[in-house]
Design goal:
The chain has twelve helices and 14 strands. By secondary structure, it is α+β, with helices and mostly antiparallel strands. The structure holds flavin-adenine dinucleotide.
Length: 268
Amino acid sequence: MIPAPFEYERAGSVDHAVELLAGDDAKLLAGGQSLIPVLRLRFARPATLVDVGRLDDLRYVREDGDRIAIGALTRHAELVRDPVLARHCAVIPHAAAHIGDPQVRHRGTIGGSVAHADPAGDLGTVLLTLDAELVARGPGGERTIPASEFFTGPFQTALASQEMLTEIRVPAVEAGTYLKLARRSADWATVGVAAARVDGRVQVGLTSMGMTPLRARGVEESLAGGASAADAAARTGEGTDPPGDVSASSEYRAHLAGVLVRRALEQL
Ligand SMILES: Cc1cc2nc3c(=O)[nH]c(=O)nc-3n(C[C@H](O)[C@H](O)[C@H](O)COP(=O)(O)OP(=O)(O)OC[C@H]3O[C@@H](n4cnc5c(N)ncnc54)[C@H](O)[C@@H]3O)c2cc1C
């Protein structure tokens, strides 16, 4: 389908983008890999698209004290081959490498991915698992949102309509992995599992096991108490609400998540 008519504005800076967002019913366009399909289906009909895709100063990965700072416009393919992430936070490139196909990875951005907040999205789960901080700029200035407060529902986040995500901050991790099972190559996760060792603790997150990315708190608790990977993985289902759909039944997802959690823990 053809999108409903919209005005197009190209932002020259973050401040300019925030200014343009103040207009009636405006929406940011980054890599377009989620928004364009949504427009074509007419699920969204913004009056104005504010294109931030050329703000190259938001495409970076750098060490910043004890954190790693990632610009919101950094593309999935750039995450995959980044040397700082490879050395200090390989769970991010590992997950990014599983996203869609090369075309999607060369256009899609980490900021767009988490702002879109698809419950089947891979990077949101990784950021939640790492207790990332998300930096947003709005008309009132900058604020930092913990990942635990960012995802408020399916396709919903704590971002206000006039805010733009500018940076994501993650800790360096000692080890990390992302396992994903999809029905077809380049597809969204039937279930995805992120696991990382952060400051000696193991943190685990789940994709497609509820309406938002989830932490597997029962698994984490068991591991902290000295349980084996298999015993801890038996608590994967706690606090989850796996959907049933054309890809998998709810029961299959629950079983699969336990298997993937055990495998992920064995890899750490
Ligand atoms: C064929 C296909 C397969 C895919 N497979 C996967 C997959 O396996 N796993 C996965 O996780 N994803 C998958 N995706 C989605 C992909 O990761 C997108 O790149 C991502 O979801 C959105 O990033 P984007 O930069 O393209 O954002 P856009 O599509 O430009 O924007 C998405 C939303 O985020 C908002 N937004 C964008 N940037 C910002 C910002 N900086 N601040 C605030 N709001 C912002 C936009 O207004 C819009 O609402 C797939 C997409 C396609 C088309």
